[in-house]
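Quick start: read one record
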Amino acid sequence: MSCRFALIGTGWRAGFFADLARRMPERFEMTGVLCHSAAGRERALSQWQARIYESPEEVAADRPDFVIASVPGKAVPELAVFFAEHDLPILFETYCSSSVEEMEDLYRKTGGARIQLAEQYPFQPMHAARIAVAASGTLGRVYQARASFIQNYHTLAVLRRLLGIGMELPLVMAWQGENRRAAPATRAGDPARDVLEPARQETFLLDYGDRTAFGDYESMQQRSWIRHPVVQVRGERGEILNDQVTFLKDYLTPVSYRLVRCQTGTEGNLEGFDLKGIQGNGEWVYRNPYRPARMMDDEIAVATCVDRMRDYAAGGPAFYPLEEAFQDHYICLLIQEAAASRRPVQAQKQIWQDHLKK
C-alpha cells in the first residue's frame, strides 16, 4: 500500500525521506516540500525535483496522508500544535527538549493528537533481530541489557524493547567524563588530519527493580573506526552478545548460534549489493521488506518508520508516540542530572504516562 507524505525541511536527515520517494515511488509519494531557506529551496528543486509548499497552511490544504517534519527542535512545538489543529498526523524526525516543563507544555497542547517520532534504531536490521530473539522466550526471562553504540535516547529506545520495558520508572545512576581519541569521520567525510580530540563519555545504569539497563556512549562513537558497538542481553536461560546467541535447550545442553547477515552482491554473487535479511539457528530472524532498494541499515530503519507511520495514519497502532518519546527524553534529562550531581535520581510519574500502555 502506497502513501502520500509532505516533507518539511531540507537538511541532511530530510534527504533520507526524500530518497525514499525516489527509490520506491510505488510505495512512497512525496507531495511537496516546505523549505525555510533559499539553499533548501534550491536543493528541493534541483536534487529532489519536488513541488514547493509556501506555508504550513498550503501543506494542510493539500491533505497528504501525513506530514514528515525534519526540523530543529525549537520548531517542533509550533508545527505540532498547527497540524494537531488541522487534524493531520505528523512524524517528527526528532525532538530534544531541554526541560520537563517544555514537554509538559507541549503535551498539554497536543496530547491525543496523532504525533509520532521517527526513532529508527529499534528498526535497524540487527537491532530488530536481537529484539525479536529477546522477545521469543529463547533466553527465558530477560533481566539485563547493555548497549554502547549511539547517544542515550536512541540507546534507551533499543534497551527498553530488549527488556520489554514500557513506562516503568527507574532509579537512575550516571557518570560523565572526557578523554582524548583519534578524530572520527564526520558527515562531511574522512578526518582531515591525524589529531587527538576531546571525546565526552556518558555511562548510565537504570534500575527497574527486576530489570537493569546499562548504557555507555562516547561522542561521535557511531562514526569512529576504533570504537566497536556492543549490545548484550542476559536472560535466565541464555544471552545475546552482539551477533552471538547462546541458550540452554535443556539444563545439560547449551546451544550457540550467530545472527548472520544474508548479504547479496559479495564475492561472485551478481544480485546487486543488498541485505536479504538476518538468519539465526536455521531460521529467518529478520527479513528486509525493501529488497532490492539497495539501502544501508539506517535507511531501511527510516523506511520502516515511514511505513509504520502510514499504517498509523490509516488507523493502525502507534510505533513511537509522543508519550514514549517524552519518556525517553525525560530519562535522558535524569541521566544528565545524576551525572552532574553524582547521586542517584528516582524517576517520577509524568503527565503523559497515563496515556500509553506498558
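The mean pLDDT is 94.
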